[in-house]
């Protein structure tokens, strides 16, 4: 699963990308379009449960869950018509599963703003409108072909026509497709190949000044109000400060965090919220060799959960033995959990829960 960092030029996307991925792979400079080709990196998900499990079952290796992050070039008004990097930029967004939009919420005369003034809500509206306009073009281009195929009796094409018409009606309300409620599962599947960008889940990252780490400023309040109307979350981050913290080692890092009043780097909050925005959750396997968090979509069945370890596990799935972290902390071993009758045996229909500790049996 991939999340793409987007935003107007010079809002701190590449600085945030470098800090999140622990690299300096993305160029961060004070001029528009310093990022042209997308940079990719892997982000690990901080999860205190890994430490709690390994305190009882000491492993040789501790492996967190991860997802791919893509740093995409800055967008400008008119991108859907080819302005800036135009369609090249938009094609990169089509390929990701969720959007992390960085919004500038700080004043700095030394950092230029592409629109000439700092207005985070206007920036959010600009990007949302460009994604919607591009989606409208995609659907308008797809509709004639779908209608021709539908006339031949093609059931899939009929679903596409119905879905496109509903989407176009939704756009008349000037709302993105992530808020549409009129499509059924079959219609959503019928147009899934279009890569509609305004349908992708979104997380807003308010890039704040060092004096506003909690995001209390009027600009961040406006961002939160805008996001709440779109059922999206907001995480305040000072990308510049986080980049400095990310380069530090203990105990300097802890001293720096304490000095600015943070209990953990804001990047850890971003990583966890991005994980949720992607619709993901974790289950664990625990043994002497490794304690590991595995990434699965929310709603995945037990065989699908087994499949992320190895496809053969899903094909030959028999059952899964499951226990909770709370039971591990109470009984201190899998043997004692089993003896207490707290080890559950689940079959193919079991829906995996966030935090399950699992042992899969397969043919």
Q: Please summarize the sheet with the most strands.
A: 6 strands, mixed
What's the count of strands?
12
Query: In terms of quaternary structure, what is this?
Result: single chain
List the total number of helices: 14
The portion of residues assigned to helices is 40-55%
Descriptive terms for the model:
alpha/beta, 12 strands, six-stranded mixed beta sheet, three-stranded mixed beta sheet, 20% strand, single chain
Describe the structure in brief.
The protein has 363 residues and is of the alpha/beta class. 40% of the residues lie in helices and 20% in strands. The two termini are 28 Å apart.
Description:
By secondary structure, this protein is of the alpha/beta class. It contains 14 helices and twelve strands. It has helices at residues 13-21, 48-56, 86-94, 120-151, 155-171, 185-190, 218-228, 239-246, 252-260, 266-277, 302-307, 311-315, 325-331, 334-339, and strands at 2-6, 39-44, 61-63, 66-71, 98-105, 202-208, 233-237, 280-286, 290-297, 317-323, 344-346, 357-362. A six-stranded mixed beta sheet has the order 2-4-1-5-6-7, sandwiched between helices. The protein has a three-stranded mixed beta sheet with strand order 3-9-8. A three-stranded antiparallel beta sheet has the order 11-10-12. α1 packs parallel to α8.
